[in-house]
Amino acid sequence: xxxxxxxxxxxxADLLTVRGKRVLEDVAVVYTPGRLSRRVAREYVxxxxxGDLDFPMTRDPEELRRAWREAADAVAPTALDGDxxxxxxxxxxxxxxxxxxxxxLEREHSDxxxxxxxxxxxxxxxxxxxxxxxxxxxxxxxREAADGAAPTGPERMILFKVTDVPTTHEKLTAAGYDVxxxxxxxxxxxxxxxxxxxxxxxxxDYYTLAYAVRSDADQTADDxxxxxxx
Length: 230
Description:
This protein is an alpha/beta fold.
């Protein structure tokens, strides 16, 4: 049988894929790693079908490895007897907690089949909120920017986990970037915010994205392939 890693999307229940909805309804147990993912899953499965997994908020590698072993030991019997699911916000393969679980299962429970159901990620969905069109041939890089980090170099970047907005903003603007921030986008019952003012986002929040563009980047879309066909 199978353990499915299901991407729930960025947080709005109606951004779950049709395939994800079908699998959630079919499996015996749905494991959720946190409050927000559980809230989305409850839109599609009964509370009695949900199982909790506890993951510590720590950078201690040994403590994290222990937590993932315990999680793998918990889900493996379900996946061997029937089908189960582990749900995560966004996509299971993009900076997701699911990757740790999958690797632990492969190492310690190799008889468990694992299948991924992709989800809409906030690092791609951001474009529809920011009004950004990434044209063919343009460079766009994904970077993490926790605790005031401010990576530079690429012409355009999506930054995620921007937990110290003022510091990241100061460093990026000094390096010649224009920066727009988005917080808790596409999350039901949350208060989303889009701004280029770092003072509006002084409070630390894990669910903050930024779109950074070098000030000298060419912002003019190239429509020549279409005009040639006119």
